[in-house]
Amino acid sequence: MTQNETGRFDYIIVGAGSAGCVLANRLSADPSKRVLVLEAGGRDNWIWFHIPVGYLFAIGNPRADWMFRTEEQAGLNGRSLAYPRGKVIGGSSAINAMIYMRGQAADYDRWRQAGLPGWGWDGVLPYFLKMEDHARPMNASHRSGGEWRVDFPRMRWDLLDAVQDAAERVGIPKVDDFNTGDNEGSSYFQVNQKNGRRWSAARGFLKPVLNRPNLHLETGVRVERVVMEGRRAVGVLYTKGSEQFFARADGEVVLSAGAVCSPQLLELSGIGQPERLRDLGIPLVHALPGVGENLQDHLQLRPIFKVSGVRTLNDDYRKLWMRGLMALEYALFRKGPLTMAPSQLGLFTRSSPEQATANVQFHIQPLSLDKFGDMPHPFPAFTASVCNLRPTSRGSIHARSGDPRSAPMIHPNYLSTEEDRRVAVDSIRLARKIANAAPLARFHPEEFRPGAHLTTDGELVAAAGDIGTTIFHPVGTAKMGSDDDPTAVLDARLRVRGVEGLRVVDASAMPSITSGNTNSPTMMIAEKGAEMILADAKSASRA
Q1: Which of 216, 298, 363, 473 is catalytic?
Q2: 233-290: per-residue pLDDT in tens?
Q3: Active site includes 142?
């Protein structure tokens, strides 16, 4: 294979996903800095990347999705799950649920308390605010004028209003805003949309600045490894078609390939557990045993309840004429079901009284199906998807072989702790309690999944294994940690420990998962990380 020299850059960003788009925007703002962005996917020139309901067609489609799968999971009764990840500029923000969620102040305060200065709630809030363009009037919690558009849903459902009333009846109060640091309560989700269209990281951060002469984007490329000279990263080796290229970094290489691919790239570059790399035939460059470990994900359980006497999307979608009306409503007014995120109503609450803060999240949907991509069920129903926000189970993601074209091994290790199994049982019982509350009685809810005949703890743990699936929030596989943490891959400035000129800036860096949807926290990490990169470069130039 012919190797070509691409050129010299100050910064090479591997991955144009949620984090990579933010980094590209910020690092190229100085016209004297040359920035190369390498993206394995393509441009977002497909209609379903922009119409919100397009996630139904993008997830599970190799045009938009990497089509990863987990290994078989004991906690899921031996099942293997599809593990969607966006394969396009914008990454998973181009195919995800569009839910704007920061998490809880306590999440970040735990990071700070674990020895990561600057990562507490007070330290990260300014970065959320810097990027935000919120439809809400400016206040202490929200700003306008940034690149990351946040809007309100453009459709409501009588059924979801009744679920919210039922949740209030069982002690989950209605709240106005999930994003003030305490998200306990119920509310309609805020979404990353503008005028009824998806607002991806590419649309907000990358595409508006691609005209900068110092910013170069390459799509359809596969990065094979980071090139090292001793303990310093000096560039990357990548392929496009049948040609191989080397790009040199005079400043830094920044991995933003996500919690699945960034640890794989570290291992392919000789950074990781020595024994694992030896078995893969990869020469060891630097031993870091935490690479690929500490995987955390939100496992969603999807109880489904049949209803009657109320409209659901199951009814609408299965009627061809209704689908035509939906399309017309969207084309004329940018409203209606085609503007819907996968979930509209959110509930955050505690699965049991001993929880200090809300530890479960419901995504309530006025529809039901076996899995994304399938037709809705042939009866009216709603889904009360619920996930454990702070799982104690830990999994891993590792390179399967030394071949960069080989998909990594994904082992989430769901429901492997007694605590996670207890929260799963309590969550199913809480979903039933909400469904049986008086405000929903007029719709005669009837449990379809997992089945009302399952009542004991053992039966419900087994049911959780049958109906549990990822909610697409993998984090933590190259975690930040303090100097005395032997499993830490990164320091508090997102630098790979023991290596110069190399950082990981994406969801991999999270030491523990945030209490909610993880896309906007990942972008916050990139916003803060870009500032750190520029500040460190400035300090080095003065030295």
Answers
A1: 473
A2: 999 999 999 899 999 999 999 999 999 999 999 999 999 999 999 999 999 999 999 9
A3: no
Whole-number percent of the chain with pLDDT over 90: 90
Amino acid at 162: A
Hey, what's the torsion of the CAs at 435, 439, 442, 446, to 10 degrees? 0
pLDDT exceeds 90 at position 128:
yes
Stated pTM of the model:
0.97
Closest CA to 96 of 393, 424, 518, 469: 518
Chain centroid to CA 444 = 35
Confidence check: pLDDT of 371 > 90 = no
What own/partner pairs with CB < 8 Å and gap ≥ 24 does 391-394 have? 391/296, 391/297, 391/298, 391/299, 391/417, 391/420, 391/423, 391/513, 392/417, 392/419, 392/420, 393/75, 393/296, 393/417, 393/420, 394/293, 394/294, 394/295, 394/296
- 169: helix, coil or strand? helix
Give the chain's end-to-end CA distance (angstroms, integer): 41
Q: Please state, in angstroms and rounded to a whole number, the distance separating the CA atoms of residues 230 and 500.
A: 9
Q: What is the DSSP string of 335-381?
A: -SGGG--S--EEEEE-SSTT-SS--EEEEEES---SSTTSPPPSS-E
Where b means 16+ CB within 10 Å and e means fewer, 181-211 reads: bbbbbbbbbbbbbbebbbbbbbbbbbbebee
CA distance 479 to 512: 8
Q: Which two tokens stand for residue 350?
A: 């505690």
Nearest Cα to Cα of residue 87 among 191, 242, 220: 220
Say what the pLDDT of residue 1 is.
47
**52 preceded by a cis bond (ω within 30 of 0):** no
Contact 500, 228 (CB under 8 A): no
Q: To which H or E segment does residue 83 belong? A: strand 82-83
pLDDT in tens, 476-495: 999 999 999 999 999 999 99
